[in-house]
Amino acid sequence: MVRVSYGVWDGVVRDNRGLIPVEIAPDPDLEGFEYFNDGNPIRAFIGDRGFVVFDPEVDLVDALWRHMDRAAEESCGKCTPCRVGAPLIRDALAEVRAGRGSEEGWQRIAALAHQMAETSLCYLGQSSANALLAAIEHFPEHLKPGGAPAPVDNGMSYVTAPCVEACPSKVAVPRYIDFIKDGRPDLSLGVILRKYPMAATCGRVCVRFCEMACRRNAIDEPVGIKILKRYVADQQAGLHGPIFSPDMIPTRLPDSMRVAVVGGGPAGVSCAYHLLLRGYHVDVLEAAEVAGGMARSGIPSYRLPKDVLKAETDTVEQLGGHFRFGQALGRDFTIDDLFEQGYKAVFLGLGCAKGTLLGVADEDPSLKGYFSGIDFLLEVHNHVEYGAPLALHGEVAVVGGGNVAMDCVRSALRLGASKVHLIYRRTEADMPADHEEIEAAKQEGVIFHCLTNPSRILSEDGRIVGMDLIDMRQTVPDKKGRIGVEPIPGTEHAFRCDVVVAAIGQQVDKQTLPASDGVQLDKWGCVAINPQTLVTTRMGVFAGGDCASGASTLIHAMAMGLKAARAIDDYLRHGHARFFPRTRMRRLLNENKLLSGECFEVPVAHQYRIDIPNLSPDERRRTFEEVEKPITAAEAYREAARCLRCYRVYSVVTETAVPGGTR
């Protein structure tokens, strides 16, 4: 860990040079601050929690000027302390940099900084001058020009917020909310489309990591970020003609620059979208006859209408790409075939299309009434969309606690089951499913059996008749802090049901990737990749989404699609992975948890989130019609106004210029 020379962090003053009389305190627990990029030391770091200087030769005035310059640039202009104060502070610091500082000038800077911190309406204004105020109070002797300022590009500044960092795709959430408040849903949608094309889909089924990180959780309720995303996407649908066209692509590459995307699910569509925008010629090879992957067959229509999904997967063709349907890797072509056909790179977005067995006695997938979770949802999809026969009678038991399990139990109710049971070996609080899905299932009448696990499948004449269940109890936490469970001896009991759905996990179908393709799997049965570049064990082949990460979320899959497109672009145009300063800064923030443990210093009025209109439980149990209904423009504005704009600026000063820019 790099040694701090001096600074103020979390209110603790440190001076390891022994130049000022302060109580000796250990260095802040900052890991990874030795170098920003290879061979380029970090000389100083400035954030909302203070500043630390690692190189005592750093010009502190210059560092603070650059930090406030970015704060002034990012000010939304809606409150005077930040709109006026940040530029005035920046300009005053520029005078000091130029050797024209004075005691009176510093008093004015301090007064402006205090006013920003105490009266700004959002966290950007409240926090941007924290480091400056700490320097004025504790290290005034360093606030004089130290000769020629360092070049401005020796370092970078990064603006973010907790919701942005929590989002796998790093969508600028406060920015698209700002545009809603400005009455510009079109510009709001544009912010989202920079990261992925499936805004309306994500606005319906996203698991809302951003809302979990929302600082309003400490006051009342998080901002309804997901419903606002759906609002802006639905506002644009069908109103202004096609959103996407080949005209969006500034430069098309030669026809030889072709990339094959295997799999038309969220990861594949996202990768194809970003490659097309970069000018590549892209073909998407999909085993089914329609695009969408597990988002189409695995998410029921009451959550995601299929016309909404199709409108967004069609983006690939609107941008000039092509789908090749009915083409399955391992059955209709190999990776060797793709390279022989002239593709320069291949992206595998295969998903996890095979269910996981329960692993209990007498389990036989061929039994009538036995389904894996994803097979059951595929049957539901084919029944609802194409009229394929599927009728449920009697009682259905779904084993699992994730979102797939919730989709299974809620779909079983709609298909006529007399009773639907959810069997889960841990507590309800431990369920990985979205809390809203759990509550919806309970409202619709699903019966929960927690701390219960199957031990044997019961069958007669080739048909499911029930399971033996055993009670579970909690034990000690594991290495990750999750409380373990174990069976309670002597608590076995028979449980009668007519259908069993094993919704405990999914895996990659290994038949799609024979050893001859040169793409290895890891110990979990996923495609082995370099986590930074997503390249597999075969040159020119990249992978992302569920097949590389294990069964995850739609937003994770789309994020990996973007990351893969960037990596493929680097591979084909540059021959190596480029350095991305924003990615490096995010890693520093995440690994050091720099956005956690905050408290509010400015009072915030309670204002609870809007009620999202829904079909009643009685109505939705009888139909696959979409449960959530759209909100009005007035409701969207009101919800957007709850955003606290929790932006903050982070700046690093480095020894040499940062490759890839200063932001």
UniProtKB/TrEMBL annotation:
Entries under InterPro entries matching the protein: DPD_II, FAD/NAD-bd_sf, FAD/NAD-binding_dom, NADH-UbQ_OxRdtase_51kDa_CS, Nuop51_4Fe4S-bd, Nuop51_4Fe4S-bd_sf
Gene3D superfamilies linked to this entry: FAD/NAD(P)-binding domain, NADH-ubiquinone oxidoreductase 51kDa subunit, iron-sulphur binding domain
GO molecular function, one term: NADH dehydrogenase (ubiquinone) activity
All copies of domain NADH-ubiquinone oxidoreductase 51kDa subunit iron-sulphur binding, residue ranges: 61-106
A Pfam family: Fer4_20
PROSITE patterns: COMPLEX1_51K_2 (PS00645)
PANTHER family on file: GLUTAMATE SYNTHASE [NADPH] SMALL CHAIN, GLUTAMATE SYNTHASE [NADPH] SMALL CHAIN-RELATED
Protein name: FAD-dependent oxidoreductase
Organism: Siculibacillus lacustris
